[in-house]
Structures are given as C-alpha cells and as structure tokens.
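discrete fold record:
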Amino acid sequence: MIKLIGIISKGGIPIRVKALIDIEAEELLAGMIEAIRALSSVIGKKEIKMLDFGKDKLLFTESEKGYTIVALV
C-alpha cells in the first residue's frame, strides 16, 4: 500500500506531496525530503533506490529532468 508519494524539484523544493495516511508531524516530511536528496546524490541516477524506513520501504528515483520521485510503501 502506498502511504505517501511526492515529486521534489532539483533544488529540493516539494512540487507535490500526497499523503494517503494521517501524518502526525510535518517535520517528518521535511526530514524525509532532505534524506532523499542526500541519498539520491550519493547513489546515482537512472535506477530505483529502496531504503528501509522503519517498517516501511522508501522508494525513490530521479527523472531525466532532475525531479526526484518518492513513495513510502
């Protein structure tokens, strides 16, 4: 089940974030976005990355135009 999906610009600004569950703290989104940007720059482009995020999985990839697409499942 997808719990959160979002698109983040090259500069780290959230373009669209859709939470399909209740989020208790907005700080979670900001921290997750920064972690995604840092991991994406280290791991590289053109592949889907997966990270254990507690009991969930965080999937993310970068588009050719520099957008980061993220999903918490």
About this structure: The domain at 4-72 is CATH 3.30.450.30 (Beta-Lactamase). Residues 26-43 form the longest helix (18 residues). Strands lie at 4-8, 14-19, 49-53, 56-62, 68-72. The chain is about 25% helix and 40% strand.
